[in-house]
Specification:
heterodimer; A: 560 residues; alpha+beta; 3 domains; five-stranded mixed beta sheet; 54% helix; B: alpha+beta; Dipeptide-binding Protein, domain 1; eleven-stranded mixed beta sheet; 10 helices
């Protein structure tokens, strides 16, 4: 895993993990506190509803009491109820009274339990139902939820019973207020609290406690009329929706998500910047270090940073300096060793050839001193020795000459060789290398390896001479006439924009072992000149200090 | 109350017949009598015809020209009776009287020959010919039209097969022709109009020249505002609202004239077995409604709707398919139907747990046609001259279902004293009597 990836992951975890823990903790605390608050509100509402039911019951009782007074004072009712006159008035009485008293249910029964007037179901008259007032009278608190039939549906009412005596007969009043959705909604003070009613007949009634806080049910006596009349128990259930909590959770989640996104983005940018700030110079140091080679010790490790990376860069730079110095010393030592060995061998071999000659010459001097006539004899006597030594020396020279292999003479495409050489040098060296090659050059008869070696030396020297990175080296080829017998000449130029050479430097440029470079052998131009001459060519130089140098190689070309 | 255009689908062919029973069939009534001026048997007002220039009429049902000439409520029955004529009319005692027909006789071969009166004219002044009569009938009863030939401009020759002569008093067979541009059809009655009645706007009907009748100003108001019409000095109020009638009776300038028991509420159940008719106490039903009512009573032949066998309806067994809902359905604008339905529930006619359901007119018509409900409370005409024709307007399931007449109701006329002569026909239609 890269250093950059580690920084990104690490920074992300550092930022996101505390945020996640914080959010989970906030959610849990929020849920606990709100749920507790909801439970308190539900319990309070249950108490309020209990009080409301008592107040409603008292209100019903007051209305029934007032209705009793009104009936007692109504002679028309008396006549209708007791004498059977004006039946329509009697039938409509409960309906009208119900509207005036604000009741939703009103039933008037005679002592046999026969309905003589019904407000909520006008046309149920004459039905006998004595159980309803009897059971209502026995209900706790004298109040019960009653399922009363109407023409259209069943009316659920909170009802009470009362009675009066009229003409010696007892009449029962059953009155109540409707317990419907409006009634239940009136009990709930706000939309988060819900009041529901569960009847014993509601077998499918179920409260979803997962979605709401459910309070302790409030039991209310219930008289169901659907099957058999009897007192059972209905339950008023107060619930508090958890929707506000869920909504709050969603808002918190959104807020945390936004915070996580923003923090994550900031952390990502910070980590990216930090990792770049650290890893980019390291990658650059690694790249430069990879370029270091014995042939390439010019890699720079400058840095302005004052941190560890700057110190590392400076250490690497110092190491490079030491490497360069060591390499120079190594090459110098190698050169000296090579030259010294050769010189000692040549010295030894020449001495081996010269010693007999010197001895002969001493002998001849002694002979000449002793008598001129002996000189001729001595010369004759030692002629063989001299000749033998000379022959030895000639063989020796021939043998040393053989250390340099004879180049082959074969048709050579100069432009192709120039391109190949530029390509190879360009791969190994840095510098601006250009070529200006003429078309249709004549073929040169020489060894391509020799020509490439010439070019490599000249181009290498030219690149070495460049004083600035902007300098260029231009290799060109032209064709010119003027060779022996009108033969064409191929002219190769290697021009640089380097520092050029003074007259003194030019005079010594082709000397063996002369060099201005700390790591040079001093043999490059010497070898170039020898190779050009071996190819029957010519080499000249146009140079001036600060104006660069142009080396011109002219090689005889093949005829048309 | 059943909305007019639905009501007509059930009652359109129910027309007056002889008083006291189902209409006689295939018999030619006695020659047209000339009622003596002293014959006041069917009059509810007997003032001089020209005693007033304008008579203010107050009605409590809507009047729609598109229904003409077939009335669909009490108000339309009054208005159309003034505007349109049939060949004959039947008075409250069942006597067949001339209208567009001046006379009629039966030939030796049994065909009826009806002669039109010579002064019969449409509102536009065109004389009424026998061909006009035939054209009007052809559009409404093609089979009847095929039984008729026109030997003369004023004579119709009629094959009486399967016909009762009283059929020609059917408002369906009123002689009209279309008015250019629509609106009221052009009739031959003693009044004509081009107006409309609705909201605060009154309908004006003008007498045709020579009738010697006052103009009519007809206003329509809800039944709950009927007493306001009395206070506004209406000359004639047709209503069944008991409060308005009680109020009118306290006013000495008005007299209360109950019209005939012309409507019957029935309980129709596609599956008669679902009813517990033993629980049905007919004597208690009139108390269930807020109008004058009595337990349903048939005439001497019984209630016409019950005896449908003679009309060829097959008495098929009830469908075994039980209705999905145990409810008694009524048309929600008919308060009396609602009261009756509620009473039936109170009596557990459909057993415990049944409910009533009031449906909007269109929904009720659809539900009634389908027969998918447990029972229906429906108001129909109590009398009809052609029960079979009326029955054919009912859904097919009626013939095999249960039909229980519940109560009869009637309308009252509060008449200002001194009004011109007003007579009552057999079907309860009130009409001003021309000179």
């Amino acid at each position: 895993m890269s250093f950059r990836a580690r920084i990104l992951i690490g920074l992300g975890l550092i930022v996101l993990f505390p945020l996640a823990v914080f959010e989970l903790r906030v959610r849990a605390d929020m849920a606990d506190r709100l749920t507790a608050e909801y439970q308190r509100r539900v319990a309070s509402l249950v108490a309020v509803i209990r009080a409301d039911l008592s107040r409603d019951s008292a209100g019903i009782a007051r209305r029934l009491d007032a209705l009793k007074d009104a009936i007692a004072a109504d002679n028309r009712f008396r006549l209708a109820a007791l004498q059977g006159a004006d039946r329509a008035y009697l039938l409509d009485y409960a309906g009208n009274a119900m509207r005036f008293t604000g009741l939703a249910m009103l039933q008037i029964q005679d002592e046999q339990g026969r309905i003589i007037s019904s407000g909520h179901f006008r046309n149920e008259y004459d039905r006998v139902e004595p159980e309803l007032p009897r059971l209502l009278a026995t209900a706790p608190g004298g109040m019960a939820l009653v399922e009363a039939p109407t023409a259209e549906a069943t009316l659920l009412a909170l009802a009470r019973v009362d009675s009066l005596r009229l003409g010696g007969r007892r009449f029962t009043l059953v009155g109540g207020v409707a317990v419907d959705s409006n009634f239940l909604a009136r009990l709930a003070p706000d939309s988060d609290l819900a009041v529901s009613l569960t009847l014993p007949t509601d077998t499918l009634a179920r409260v979803d406690s997962a979605a709401q806080v459910v309070g302790t049910p409030l039991a209310v006596p219930f008289l169901g009329l659907r099957d058999s009349l009897g007192v059972s128990e209905a339950r008023i259930v107060v619930t508090h929706s958890l929707a506000p909590l869920a909504a709050l959770r969603r808002r918190v989640d959104v807020a945390f998500a936004v915070a996580v996104l923003l923090t994550g983005a900031i952390a990502l940018l910070l980590a990216s910047w930090l990792s770049n700030w650290i890893s980019r110079p390291l990658r650059e140091l690694a790249r430069r270090t990879a370029e270091i080679d014995m042939e390439r010790l010019d890699v720079a490790f400058e840095s302005d940073r004052d941190d560890e990376i700057g110190a590392l860069s400076r250490l690497l730079g110092a190491m490079m300096e030491r490497l360069r110095a060591g390499a120079a010393r190594l090459r110098e030592a190698e050169r000296r060793i090579a030259v010294g060995d050769l010189a000692r061998q040549v010295n030894h071999d020449i001495k081996n050839g010269l010693i007999p000659i010197r001895n002969v010459f001493r002998h001849l001097l002694e002979a000449a001193r002793s008598g001129p006539d002996r000189l001729a004899a001595a010369l004759q006597d030692r002629q063989g020795t001299v000749e033998s030594s000379i022959s030895y020396l000639e063989n020796l020279a021939t043998n040393y000459a053989r250390l340099s292999p004879q180049p082959a003479r074969e048709p050579c495409d100069v432009n192709a060789t120039v391109r190949e050489t530029i390509r190879r040098v360009g791969e190994a060296r840095r510098g601006d290398l250009k070529s200006e090659l003429a078309d249709a050059l004549p073929v040169v008869r020489t060894d391509p390896l020799v020509l490439r070696r010439i070019l490599e030396n000249l181009i290498g020297n030219a690149l070495d001479s460049l004083a600035s990175p902007d300098g260029t080296v231009t290799v060109g080829t032209t064709r010119s006439a003027g060779g022996d017998g009108g033969r064409p000449v191929v002219r190769i130029t290697v021009a640089d924009t380097g520092k050029g050479m003074s007259r003194e430097e030019l005079n010594r440029a082709f000397d063996d072992f002369y060099t201005t470079k700390p790591d040079g052998t001093g043999l490059g131009l010497s070898i170039v000149r020898r190779l050009v001459l071996d190819a029957d060519g010519a080499l000249r130089v146009e140079t001036a200090p600060g104006a660069g140098s142009k080396f011109i190689v002219e090689l005889p070309g093949e005829g048309e | 109350m059943i909305r007019p255009h639905h009501q007509i689908s059930l009652f359109g062919l129910l027309v007056v017949a002889a008083c006291g029973g189902a209409a006689p069939r295939g018999e030619l009534p006695p020659p047209a009598p000339a009622l003596a001026p002293s014959d006041t048997a069917c009059l509810i007002a007997a003032g001089r015809p020209a005693s007033r220039d304008t008579v203010a009429i107050a009605l409590t049902d809507p009047v729609d020209p598109a229904h003409a000439p077939l009335p669909r409520n009490v108000a339309e029955r009054f208005v159309f009776a003034q505007l349109y004529e049939t060949l004959v009319r039947v008075d409250c005692q069942g006597r067949v009287l001339p209208a567009l027909a001046r006379s009629w006789e039966q030939g030796p071969e049994g065909r009826w020959t009806v002669t039109l009166r010579s002064d019969g004219r449409f509102w536009d002044g065109a004389p009424v010919t026998a061909r006009d009569v035939l054209a009007a009938w052809r559009a409404r009863d093609s089979s009847l039209a095929r039984a008729i030939t026109v030997p003369d401009d004023r004579v119709l020759s009629i094959d009486p097969s399967g016909l009762s002569f009283q059929r020609f008093a059917d408002p369906t067979l009123a002689v009209t022709k279309s008015a250019p541009g629509g609106g009221w059809p052009i009739g031959t009655g003693h009044y004509w109009t081009t107006g409309s009645a609705g909201g605060a706007e009154a309908l004006w009907a003008s007498p045709v020249p020579g009738a010697g009748l006052p103009a009519l100003k007809v206003t329509v108001a809800p039944a709950s505002e009927a007493r306001d019409a009395v206070d506004a000095n209406a000359d004639l109020l047709l209503t069944s609202d008991p409060a308005a009638l009680d109020y009118g009776r306290t006013r000495s300038e008005y007299q209360d004239a109950p019209l005939g028991w012309d409507q019957t509420y029935v309980l129709l159940a596609p599956d008669g077995t679902s009813l517990e008719l033993s629980a049905l106490r007919l004597e208690s039903l009139p108390q269930a409604v807020h109008v004058e009512a009595r337990p349903a009573q048939g005439d001497d032949g019984g209630f016409w709707l019950i005896d449908l066998k003679r009309c060829g309806f097959a008495a098929e067994p009830a469908s075994p398919r039980a209705p999905q809902r145990r409810r008694i359905v009524y048309e929600q604008t008919d308060r009396d139907a609602r009261d009756l339905a509620a009473r039936l529930v109170g009596l557990a006619t459909l057993g415990r747990g049944a409910v009533v359901a009031g449906l909007a007119p269109v929904a009720f018509e659809s539900a009634f046609r389908s027969g998918a409900e447990a029972a229906y409370v429906l108001r129909i005409r109590r009398r009809t001259v052609d029960p079979c024709a009326a029955a054919r307007e009912l859904p097919a399931w009626v013939a095999r279902g249960s039909i229980t007449p519940l109560i009869d109701t009637r309308t009252h006329a509060l008449v200002r004293r001194g009004l011109p002569r007003l007579s009552v026909d057999w079907d309860g239609a009130v009409r001003l009597v021309p000179r």
